[in-house]
Description:
This protein is an alpha/beta fold and 299 residues long. The protein is 40% helix and 24% strand. The protein contains ten helices and eleven strands. It has helices spanning 3-15, 18-25, 29-43, 59-83, 104-116, 129-137, 196-201, 207-211, 228-236, 282-298, and strands at 48-50, 55-57, 91-97, 120-126, 143-147, 155-171, 191-195, 220-225, 241-245, 257-261, 267-275.
Amino acid sequence: xxxxxxxxxxxxxxxxxxTKAANYxxxxxxxxxxxxxxxxxxxxxxxxxxxxxxxxLTSEGHILRxxxxxxxxxxxxxxxxxxxxxxxxxxxxxIGSGESHTIKFITDIIKDIQKQYSEIKFDLVSGxxxxxxxxxxxxxxxFAVLIEPINISKFYYLTLPEKDRWGVIMKKDSPLxxxxxxxxxxxxxxxxxxxxQVKRQNPSDSDFMKWFKGSxxxxxxxxxxxxxxxxxxxxxSGVGYVVGLDNLLxxxxxxxxxxxxLYPTLESALNIVWKKGQIFSPASKVFxxxxxxxxxxxx
Length: 299
């Protein structure tokens, strides 16, 4: 398979039309159609379902789309790294992160770096821990910021100086909103909305599981979420009470939501991780050195 043809295939998948994709790629429609047919023959699979005015992906086409996106991302990243090998330090640093207000620690470092190195760019990717670790393993990210508890033994890492605080996000007219903090017994029999990652990945000896007395079986988990913005919409609709981190949703006076911390206090540390034996680009080296210096300064 040629990289060029994979780019053609992705353009067709995105546009949903061979004609539109051909226009975007500045190719004739017959040329593009021929390239796609050759690709299907090489793979021995039908990738596109063609109708008079549009195309859609077969199940095999969806598989190729995912793989092609990963391949193109890796090719683009590799090209940028080699272009950055020159006297002027340049290139793109790829950082993945879960949702956390402590990411401002990272963005402040980014701001300082760009004052000194105007040719260094940054690509920030949001996602849950599973997605970020997969991208890190595949070389699509240089660094990932992961919220504890999570097993990071296979990575090198630095612990960020701030922690995230857990609590309950709910409508302001909810009965629990009258409390200053939320205890274990307050959550019994209530419809709860949990992070899918937290519910699935917490080891039994983690502080989180200790707070919940080792099991979620005694709670009514009405829904789960990957992105807390969507969880906030569920809370506003009255689906339930969101167990989540502070400072990620608007709970100010103009919001229908409010936050109450868990008691006893439950906090999670954040670690920025990278692969062992990783070869960094010059731009990534600059970021890592600045990160280490900033953490040392705050100790």
